[in-house]
Amino acid sequence: MEYNPKFGPGAQTPSQRRTVLMRLQDAIPSLRTKATPYAKQLYSRYVAGELSWPEVRQALNVQM
Predict the structure, then answer these.
(1) How far is Cα 32 from Cα 40, in angstroms, rounded to an integer?
(2) Which domain of life is it from (predicted)?
């Protein structure tokens, strides 16, 4: 696996990104409880490696 600087060292694989997302949602429950279908789509794209977490947050901020 090639290192991708777009993601932190603990979020290089989809499994690791899923874990990071779950930890973020545990720390900030509104990420889960107030997640719109659009937000859930962005979360899926983050887990798939298409977006970094800052890109997800930026897209959510633009939407609001």
Answers:
(1) 9
(2) Bacteria
Record the tokens describing residue 18, joined without a space.
């899923």
Give the alpha-carbon dihedral of 31, 34, 39, 41, to 10 degrees: 100
Per-residue DSSP letters for 5-18? TTS-TT-SSHHHHH
Please tell me the pTM assigned to this model.
0.87
Alpha helices per DSSP H over the chain: 14-27, 30-33, 37-48, 53-63
Computed on alpha carbons and rounded to an integer, the radius of gyration of the chain in Å comes to 11
Mean of pLDDT over the chain: 91
